[in-house]
Write a structure and sequence with these properties.
This protein is an alpha/beta fold and 471 residues long. The strands form 6 sheets. Strands 1, 2, 8, 9, 10, 13, 19 and 20 form an 8-stranded mixed β-sheet that branches. The chain has a 7-stranded mixed β-sheet with strand order 6-5-15-16-17-14-18, with helices on one face. Strands 3-7-4 form a 3-stranded antiparallel β-sheet. α1 packs parallel to α3. It is globular. It starts with a strand and ends with a strand. The C terminus is likely disordered. The structure holds flavin-adenine dinucleotide. The site of flavin-adenine dinucleotide has 42 residues, from α1, β2, β3, β14 and β17.
């Protein structure tokens, strides 16, 4: 059975901040120059925003460039950050780092706490109003190539295939969405993006991408425990000094708290369970009261790019480009990527629009590869480039080095710290053999119990416990 095919100027794979920003920018440019540009956006989630982890602190820089009057247009960013706290946790103590000691770029004043899923839903309505065709519930499963090897679009997957590969009565072949340019906005470690990086050697000459796992929960808390606009970050317990990661709590909306925990995936002990560490973190004396009497409304986990500047691949290839976290523009110490995702989506859209205007198609959008390097996205990642690789010296030395580096950049003295640390091996090579590390003995205990059971690795000692309280 042959597949049906539809033709567009631009197809966008993924309806997160980067894909939606690209779609909106294309249509804005087309409207301003009275040109027709057909844009189709595929989103594998059942609806726009369905696969986005809620509760984020959003730097509105990208949004303000895309839709300057976003407030008047009703964008759902209604909790400005009012207070920042950064804590270092030990087993039973919390030490607050004075804000004056924190690098200025870690300051969240001017940012907004919001549901990133809702922001995407709102961006989706903006895109549709401009004429973008959005197809939620369709995953791009295959990249299409033309006879010269350039990307020519994507195809959605076939449905109705039996386990043995035969076609069931309801078999429907996938659909081909062909385009002059295809933008891949799949987010962190998107499957088609990974394939394209290999096929076009986009990672040649850059460091391996580094990853973390981010676990997040959305809680409705007791009104008396809610501090609207408060942003809390922590480092330390329950992770040991050789395991990178940290937590965040964002108070927003009507008694909502987004709580999350990120564990860097270059840890060594294969018995470590990021999920259990997250649950343990919530039992810390400085944290647990926030959730007393509260109710967990939603939860999820996602991979997060941590390689930063050193790991950004070449972005453009014949017929398309990578945008947002598909390429890896997340700023690790700020735990923010949506602003850079939006801006890179816009830059790719501008390059595609210019190319279409001169009758080009299926070639490389090299202007985009150049324009992001002169944009504020590059500056954002440049200032923090040594934070993640410095953690190879352990949490304390790495944090002091990273903090010093960020401060020097904040003070305009970046030229005095010109070095760029490299990321070593890929995360998949950092695990030690399980046999050389002691497995955890996770016991069910009550949430109030402070008893722990130890787990030891030849490389470090850890303690852990799992609470029995539902979270
Ligand atoms: C735990 C955690 C906390 C975070 N906190 C913050 C924060 O506070 N502030 C902040 O700014 N950023 C934060 N981020 C980062 C932020 O979520 C990302 O930087 C941002 O969402 C990247 O946007 P994107 O459009 O590139 O990708 P995504 O937001 O990941 O969107 C990709 C979309 O593409 C869809 N998709 C993927 N593959 C396909 C396919 N083949 N076909 C069709 N659709 C596809 C997905 O379903 C998804 O909707 C956090 C990330 C994590 C994991």
């Amino acid at each position: 059975m042959t597949r049906e095919s539809m033709d567009y100027d631009v197809v966008i794979v993924g309806g997160g901040p980067s894909g939606l920003a690209a779609a909106i920018r294309l249509k804005q440019l087309a409207a301003s120059e009275h040109r027709e540009v057909s844009v189709c956006l595929l989103e594998k989630g059942a609806e726009i925003g369905a696969h986005i982890l809620s509760g984020a602190v959003i730097d509105p820089k990208g949004l303000s460039e895309l839709i300057p009057d976003w407030q008047a247009q009703g964008a759902p960013l209604d909790t400005p950050v009012t207070e920042d706290r950064f804590m270092v946790l030990t087993t039973d103590k919390a030490y607050r780092i004075p804000n004056a000691l924190l690098p200025r770029l870690m300051d969240n004043h001017g940012n907004y706490i919001a549901s990133l899923g809702n922001v995407c839903r709102w961006l989706g309505t903006q895109a549709e109003a401009l004429g973008v065709e959005i197809y939620p519930g369709f995953a791009a499963a295959e990249v299409l190539f033309d006879e010269r090897g350039a990307v020519a679009g994507v195809a959605t997957g076939d449905v109705g295939i039996a386990k043995d590969g035969s076609h069931k009565p309801d078999y429907q072949p996938g659909m081909e969405l062909r385009a002059k340019y295809t933008l891949f906005a799949e987010g962190c470690r998107g499957s088609l993006s990974q394939e394209l990086m290999k096929r076009f050697n986009l990672r040649d000459g850059v460091d391996p991408q580094k990853y973390g796992i981010g676990l997040k929960e959305l809680w409705q808390v007791e009104p008396s425990r809610h501090r609207k606009g408060l942003v809390v970050h922590s480092q330390g317990w329950p992770l040991d000094s050789r395991t990178g990661g940290g937590s965040f709590l964002y108070h927003y909306g009507e008694n909502l708290v987004a709580v999350g925990f990120v564990v860097h995936l270059n840890y060594e002990n294969p018995h470590l369970s990021p999920y259990d560490e997250f649950q343990r973190f919530k039992t810390h004396p400085a944290i647990r009261d926030t959730f007393a009497g509260g109710k967990r409304l939603a939860y999820g986990a996602r991979a997060i790019n941590e390689g930063g500047l050193q790991s950004v691949p070449k972005l453009a290839f014949p017929g398309g480009a990578l945008v947002g976290c598909a390429a890896g523009f997340l700023n690790v110490p700020r735990i923010k990527g949506s602003h850079n995702a939006m801006k890179t989506g816009m830059l790719a859209a501008e390059a595609a629009f210019a190319a279409l205007g001169t009758g080009r198609a299926h070639d490389a959008l090299d202007d985009y590869d150049a324009s992001w390097r002169t944009s504020w996205v590059y500056a954002d990642l440049w200032k923090v480039r040594n934070v993640k690789p410095g953690l190879k010296w352990g949490m304390w030395a790495g944090t002091i080095h990273g903090g010093f580096h960020m401060w020097m950049n904040d003070l305009g003295l970046g030229a005095l710290v010109p070095w760029t640390l490299r990321h070593g091996k890929p995360d998949s090579e950092t695990l030690k053999p399980a046999a050389r590390c002691r497995a955890s003995t996770i016991r069910n205990t009550t949430a109030r119990s402070r008893s722990t059971s130890s787990r030891r690795c030849s490389c470090r000692t850890r303690t852990t416990k799992r609470t029995s309280r539902r979270t």
